[in-house]
Amino acid sequence: MTALPRRKLGRRAGRRRRPVAAPRRPLTVDAGEVANFAAMARAWWDPGGEFRPLHQLNPVRLTFLRDQLARHFGRDPTSTRPFKGLSLLDIGCGGGIVAEPMARLGFTVTGIDADATAIRIARAHAADAGLTIDYRQAAAEDLIRRRQRFDAVLALEVIEHSTDPAVFVATAAALVAPGGGFALSTLNRTLRSFLFAIVGAEYVLRWVPRGTHRWSKFVRPSEVAEMLRKNRLDVATITALNYRPDGSGWLLGGRPDVNYLLFASKLAGK
Questions:
Q1: Neighbour count for residue 8 (Cβ, 10 Å)
Q2: In a domain, 127, yes or no
Q3: In the chain, where does DSSP find H-type helix?
Q4: Do the beta carbons of residue 238 and residue 260 sit within 8 Å?
Q5: In this predicted structure, what is the pLDDT of residue 81?
Q6: Whole-model pTM?
Q7: Non-local CB neighbours of 128 within 8 Å, separated by 6+ positions
Q8: Residue 13 lies in a domain
């Protein structure tokens, strides 16, 4: 068999292309979930709009966060700005309904969200309120690539909308500085949470649009605790968040069958 003549290659043609580096971490952002929230983004600061349940939850969530963070950092929660000098990251900040109170408590706040509309709204609202908050359209893994860490990291009602809860927790945990604190709130995966958070809240009471939640993506407290342990965070407390039987609002305590809040810490040097 006659060999085919070799094609002469110039320097440019013969140079091998370098393979494109794969992302260091899988993306935690679910594009479909982002689209769902983007459709409602303009209502972030309307207490009677689509985000009404979060506005109703907020006072109780903020009390939990203030008390747990004050205990962890040895600060006086009754002082005007107890967390001055500390940094805080709010993952999935939305329109800023948690980031703004945290800034008022003295934290240097960074808020990230994959929804560009929510970030624009958050920036405008903070400016009107005279608050300086670093809002960014970004995912948590973007901050890891920049080697950023924070004294406190919040992930409130976010994990159940992520692509992979274990990856999300690992990513969030990596953003907590040694000696820092981490707070998470989400929905338990129980029969009661299906009946209350999906059937009740989405179909009967219509508190939130249908399809906002998927029960299969809810995460049990024990599962989150194990994920955190694998990422060198120790759970300090898990608290239930329950709706009052008389319909007057939310309270801390009781069985964490539906909503729950969790606070964990990373030991210094980790």
A1: 7
A2: yes
A3: 11-14, 31-38, 52-73, 99-104, 116-129, 140-145, 165-174, 191-193, 221-230
A4: yes
A5: 97
A6: 0.82
A7: none
A8: no
Q: Is 124 exposed, middle or buried (0-12, 13-18, 19+ CB in 10 A)?
A: middle
CATH code of the domain containing 163: 3.40.50.150
Nearest C-alpha neighbor of 81 from the set 95, 64, 101: 101
Q: What pLDDT is recorded for position 198? A: 65
> Residue 77: its pLDDT value, please?
95
Is 150 part of any domain? yes
Number of domains in the chain: 1
Segments forming the whole domain that contains residue 105 = 27-265
In a domain, 122, yes or no: yes
DSSP state of 98: T
Mean pLDDT by 10 residues, the chain (270 residues): 42 43 56 70 84 89 97 96 98 96 98 94 96 97 94 95 92 97 94 71 62 78 96 96 80 91 87
Show the tokens assigned to 216. Answer: 């299969």
Tokens of 67: 């008390």
**Per-residue model confidence (pLDDT) at position 208:** 67
